[in-house]
Structures are given as C-alpha cells and as structure tokens.
Amino acid sequence: MKLNDATPEFIDSLRKALFDKALRPVEPRHLEEPRGAWTGHAAAVIAPETTEQVATVLRMANEARVGVIPYGGGTGLVGGQVMPDGAVPIVLSLERMTKIRDVFPNENIMIAEAGAILQDLHTAAEAADRLFPLAIAAKGSARIGGNLATNAGGVNVLRYGNTRELCLGLEVVLPDGRILNNLSRLRKDNTGYDLKDLFIGSEGTLGVITAAALKLSPRPAGEGTALMIVNSPSGALELLGLARAHMGEGVSAFELIHRTGLEFLAEKLPEIRLPFQEFPEWFVLIDVGLARGLNPAEALETLFADAFESGLVSDGVIAQSETQRTAFWEVREQIPEANRLVGAISSHDISVPLGLVPEFIARAGEKLASMGDFRINCFGHLGDGNLHYNVFPAKGRTRKEYADQKLTISDTVHDLVADLGGSFSAEHGVGRLKVAELERYGDPVKLQLMRMLKASFDPNGIMNPGAVLRRND
Amino acid sequence: MKLNDATPEFIDSLRKALFDKALRPVEPRHLEEPRGAWTGHAAAVIAPETTEQVATVLRMANEARVGVIPYGGGTGLVGGQVMPDGAVPIVLSLERMTKIRDVFPNENIMIAEAGAILQDLHTAAEAADRLFPLAIAAKGSARIGGNLATNAGGVNVLRYGNTRELCLGLEVVLPDGRILNNLSRLRKDNTGYDLKDLFIGSEGTLGVITAAALKLSPRPAGEGTALMIVNSPSGALELLGLARAHMGEGVSAFELIHRTGLEFLAEKLPEIRLPFQEFPEWFVLIDVGLARGLNPAEALETLFADAFESGLVSDGVIAQSETQRTAFWEVREQIPEANRLVGAISSHDISVPLGLVPEFIARAGEKLASMGDFRINCFGHLGDGNLHYNVFPAKGRTRKEYADQKLTISDTVHDLVADLGGSFSAEHGVGRLKVAELERYGDPVKLQLMRMLKASFDPNGIMNPGAVLRRND
C-alpha cells in the first residue's frame, strides 16, 4: 500500500479539525534519536490533548493514507521514533497527554496517560507509599506510552517483570480512529482474547496507546545493596541461585559487571568512586528489598558468608548506608556513559537462556579474539539472561579503523545468540535498526503471523511505517 | 463459513495419515462437562502423540472444513470443551502428549507438553526443589494445555499471577497446520509482536497449544497459614494491605470466607473439622511463604497483633504445624463441594476492582434481598478481587422452586459487576456458557477486534466452533 506525503492541505485540515494548539512546529528533537544514527523527516508535529483528538488525527491520516510516527520521550535506541525516508509522515507526540488520571493505593494501581514521564510516575507512586518498579536510565525523559510500546526492561525485571507485566489494561486508538477501552483495574478477567499484550511491544505499528492501568507494588520494608567478586560468570549464576534460595523474590536486581567497565570508568569518568582497589575480572551488584523483620545488610552478610564458604565469592562489600547504596549503583549506571565516551564499534542488547550465559560469554570472546584485537565490555542484567555486549577498539586505536568489521562483528555475536536460542534484542526492541535481524533470525511462522496482524489492524500501513516490519512500498 | 460433518470417509483418511493409535473411540467423558449442563457430539476422538501429528490433523480438518474441539483434562466449567450442536466435529485430545521435555532448575524453567497433568508438573518441579505455583482444585486431572488455553487462575494468583504470567513461550499448531515455534527460555525478548499471549486465554479458538515453556519459582524457605476473623469485607481489605506492608510478595494467598461456607460444610460435610466454635460472619485465610530468617508463624503473630490493635481482627488462629495448615486449607477447598451438595440456583465467578469489593458485596446482597429469599455463599480470592458469588435456595426450599428466577439473578449480579467495571468471568473463561454475556458486556471495539482476529487466524472457523465467539453458520 503506497502512502501519500502529508501535504500542507492535509496539515491544514488537521488544524481545522483540532481547534486548538495541537499543531506544533517540527523541532530537531522530533527528528533525532539518541545515538545520532539517522535523521527523520516529518511535515508536522501534532500534540493532541485528548484521546478523542488522537482518534481524529488517526482517522484523518488513515483516510488520507498519511504515515503517523507515534512519539513519546524520544529515548528509544533502535530508531522506532524516527522515519528517515519514504512518504513524508506526521509525528504524533503524546507530550501533552501527561495526566495521572487516578491512583488507587489499596488496589496497587495507577491510571496514567501515555505522555506521562516515567520519573513522574515514580514520584506519584511514592507519594502514595507505593512503588512503580520500572527503572531505566532514561526515566527522566522517557514517557510511559513509549515504555509500553517497546515493552521496556531495565534493572528490576528480575523481581517485577518487564513493562508488559506491569500493565493491567490499555486505552488504544486504532489506525482507523476507533478507541479500544480496556483500562482495566482487574487482576483477573478471562473474557476473551488478550488484546493489551498485542499492543505492548508492537512499537506503535498497530495503534496508539493513549493511557494505561499500571500495577504498583508495596515498597519493601528495607533495602540493601552489595558488590561481590565472583570467579566467573558461571560462579555468578550459582550465586544468583543461592541468593534466591535465601531471599526468594526479595532479590530485586542482580547485575554482572566486568573489569572493562571499571577500566572505562577510571579512564573516562575519574570522578566516579570505584569500589575496588584492584579491579576484579567479574563482580556482581546485588540489590535486595526485604519484608519486615529482616535486616537487608545482615541478610546480605549471611549470603556472602554462605557463598564464601562454597568458594563462589572471594571478596565483597555491603552498603552500610543509603549513600553507599547510591554509590554502588552509580558505578553500574555510569558504565553506559563511559562506553559512549570510549566509543563502541558495535553494541548488542542480547539475551540467552540463563544457564547458557557462561557459554555465550566464553564462545563470543573466542570468536572475536580470532577476528582481531578488541576490548569487550560485557555487563548487564544477569538475572534476566540479558547482557549488554559491547565491542570496542583496542587501546590506542579508534573505531574508524574497524569500520569494515562492524557488520561482521554484529553478525558473529547475533549468530551465536541465535545458536543458543537467544534474542538479538532483549529489551530495546526492533525499531528500524533491527528489521533485517528480525527477518534473519525470527521464526518464519511468527513473521507470517506478524505480517497478517499488521495487515488486519492497519490495512493502509499508516502506523509507524517501516518499524518492526519492512514497508511494502 | 459453513462447516461439514466429520464423515466416516474423513475419519478414515485421518486414520491413514496418522499411521498409529491416534484414533480413539469416543468415550462419554469426552462429551461431558463437570456440571452436566450439556452433552457434546463428535465423530471421533483423535489423540496425537507428536506436534507433527497435531499439524496433520488440523491441516486435514481445515481442508475438509471439519470442526475441531481441543480437549485437555475436560475440567473447564464453561463448556469450552463440549460442542453440543452444529456440524459434527472431531475431538482433538492432548492426552498422549504428556512429556515433560526438560527442567532447568537454575533457570527456573520447565518445558512441558500440553497434555501433561498439572499435578505431575507440581511433582516434577518439587523434584528439582522448585515450585510451579499454579494451584487449582482440578489439579489432579486438568492438563497444562487447557490451563493455558483458559488462562487458569487459582489460589496463588496474588503472588505468582495467572497462568499467563507463568508462561514464557509456546509451541502452537495453527488451524492450517503451520507450527509456531516459540518455546522461549528467555526472560526478555523484544523482537516483534507478542503472539503467545494471544493464544493464552483464547480457549482453543485460534490454534492448538502443544507445548509450553513455564516459569518455576524458588520454594519459599518457610510457609505459614492463619485464619483471622474480620469485621467486614472492607476490614479484610485493610488487613490485606497491612499483610502486604508487613510481608510484601510473601503473601501467597488471601481468601475471604463467609459464614454461609461454614454452615454448608457443617450441614453437608460434617467430617470436615471447622476452626471456630461460633461461626464468624467473615474471616480470611492468609497463606504466606517467607525467605530465610523469618519464622512464618511468628510473622503471622506480629501481623495479627498489629491488626488486633487497629481493630481490624477480633480473633484468629495460626497454624502450628503442617497438619494444621492442611486442615485450614481443607476448610477453604471443600466449600465448592459443599456448595455442590447444597445446589446453587446461580453461580458467578466475578471480579471487580479490589477497592470496590465491599461495595459489590453490599449492593449485590441488597438487590437479591429485594428479589426473594436466598442464601448467599460469597467467598474466594479477595487478593485478586475475584469472588465466587453463589446464590442458593432458602433453607428448606429447593432450587426447582427458583427455576424462573435463575436468569434474573444472574443478570442482576452481572449488571452490578459491569456497573463497577468488573468481569463476569474472572477465571473460568467464556466457553460456550458465557458467549451472550461477552456480547452484552464486552467493549464493542474489543469484540470487533476479536472477530477480526478469529477470521484472520482461522478463516474457515474450524477451531472450537461456537466457543468464545458465536458461530456464523
């Protein structure tokens, strides 16, 4: 289905239909993505204030066969928010739909509009003595609609699940302007097909999420954080098992960090205080949130003693204060920034079955060593089998020198991941960056069904054209 | 789309294609449902041994336009497993696909075929020192494929979620015989649309689930159970909040029970030992599973003391042994049997937003009181906002005397539920019993999308015809 450019006449008809300040000038931020990989084009930015206005925009775009790029906080890392070519689309920004419509503390539920900023949801939950556990680096600018559209992950997935698991219901505008009212506050409702999960993670290609019913959690009575030096990734896995045997769901985060991460921090962000004098090859950050009657620092001490006795850990440090907890987390959270300053040749957001993480790390390292001289920074959410596996130039060399190897590196890593039954995109999504990977690695029947669903929901192909699935034109 | 009868020639062609013992005689159990509401018809029972055989059956049925009724343990309560009229279908029983293909204790994952009996999954998980938390009364005969197809609930949803939340990936045979390979062991995988959740809860109308990757949990270090007398449903809700503030995710089950339940047990199952001399109007069963370092009985004592001080509970008893825990649970679990022996006029499996449970109970009671003389047994999974709200004849009267009121009672309850934003089927599904309710109470756009999905996945309408959505013929 061929799309039309969004003409000045079309934009004018939108202006007349919306009767308000919904039409915005196109600003550079609407056409960029954080890594600067490409630049988009658009005839206008439309920022509706109500669900009905979103419906009007989609209905008119559908009739005119004009592409629509849904836009949240613009923090996505796979180009899902930027259309670089094809017929000129409009950008539909949710930035004016930021209301938290309701908080129900005794139900552990919050109803928020898609444009609400993640950090504001945290604040609102905290004000009700509750926790909204979705925690990602971009929380200060990411909007919940985008988090839902991409099924965002983050550091608390081990305990609380991905964004999908934090959503009870959605309000969605379909490409033809119909509104699906599914803002359920129900924990159990078996009355027909689960539509919500089809929209979550579909990256704006099936409709526009305008509001969501979100799950809150009780705040843990006490929290604690430790860093423990492990002898290997497989030792880290055993430690995770031990931690869960001790504390069950109380383990909120379990992050694996490699020496390279500390080296990059020392080199590029010397103001960050590092926890070890001598850098260990592998260590983990364990974060726990426990019920009343348990002292988190003591529970971590007990875990450490057990693990030390079993030879799983050789040293460690347990935060004795909130300041120290924050400092430990700072080490983990600043690694991506250090990476950015060093400059990766190729970055990978992969997952493999948990038990195969050590094999992946070993085999990927061997394969890359046979291809050239690299530094590898492998770190991430071990508890979820999700690693950020980033390949950098050898010390003293620049990534330009490796330009012709970039694709081979990426293919090598992703082939190995596929071989192990893993995913080439654990938490970032497909966007426009990984469309070819999806075609290459996706189950063929899954791809057929996805194309069928796209054609059913969006027969004119106006929704985020070229994201997730290749455009037909 | 009109379906054809499964003719002797068609059955014969299946027999030739399958080369094995897949063809079974039609037994009465395949045409019945537990409450005896109706009887099905079928030309044959096919029990394949492999996914490929399931694919062959569906491909041939699709070509011949013969209806297929997927059959698990036959324990569903809404007639999803029994087709009473229309063109004669075949029953596709998963009873020979019972393998547990793999258990990965360190990944907390189990891969099981659809015909595996729920109880056997519990046993296999326990053998690996893990927990498969789906717990329903029919666990001895229900099969996991049916649990997935109906998104079964049960008593542990508060802590572990519905069956949907316990599934990481599926293998599904589509109506045309294609096989979707999605048996993922990944906790994070954002590579395209979420198809799994479309099949879960679709009650066999979009395809046949043949295997699943299931989430296991660490076993809690210690478990405990208490019964506490509350002054009202709203007091019970406050107690739930307090319990979660004390123990977070440690609260595994929180069941509300009314005096009527105890009265029915005393009347019909006098061998069950009842916990209170004088029956309280309302009490709750609280089950907890806690991490190391916490004594569950002590934690429940502390909770009780706090709740007593706040006036939320007036009395209670905390299990001091496993035997006593089992005895407490026996009270809860035998209530449905006592109900069956008393004989309900109308039974309802409803949910409402948690905070509206007290309002629902009050208003439903008032409405029914104005309609006649009934006994109401209201009990269930308060933590999920899910109540079994069952209406019985007044003492000394029979349900025959109320036959003409049955429909009005059901409509009254379901209208009120809808008014409160609730669900007319919290955990049992739609099946054939509640198709009219779905049409009456479902969001119109949701229904349109469901019909569109059904037509896309199953254009000939062979899959479980008349379940969830009305047949077209």
TrEMBL record, chains A, B:
Which InterPro entries does the UniProt record give? FAD-bd_oxidored_4_C (IPR004113), FAD-bd_PCMH (IPR016166), FAD-bd_PCMH-like_sf (IPR036318), FAD-bd_PCMH_sub2 (IPR016169), FAD-linked_Oxase-like_C (IPR016164), FAD-oxidored/transferase_4 (IPR051264), Oxid_FAD_bind_N (IPR006094), Vanillyl_alc_oxidase_C-sub2 (IPR016171)
Family of this protein: Belongs to the FAD-binding oxidoreductase/transferase type 4 family.
**This protein's name:** FAD-binding oxidoreductase
Q: Which GO terms describe its biological process?
A: respiratory electron transport chain
Keywords linked to the UniProt accession: FAD, Flavoprotein
Annotated organism of origin: Thalassobius vesicularis
Q: Outline the extent of the FAD-binding PCMH-type domain.
A: 38-219
> Which Pfam families does this one have?
FAD-oxidase_C, FAD_binding_4
Under the heading PANTHER family, the entry gives: BLL6224 PROTEIN, D-2-HYDROXYGLUTARATE DEHYDROGENASE, MITOCHONDRIAL
Q: What is the lineage of its organism?
A: Bacteria, Pseudomonadati, Pseudomonadota, Alphaproteobacteria, Rhodobacterales
Give the domain of life.
Bacteria
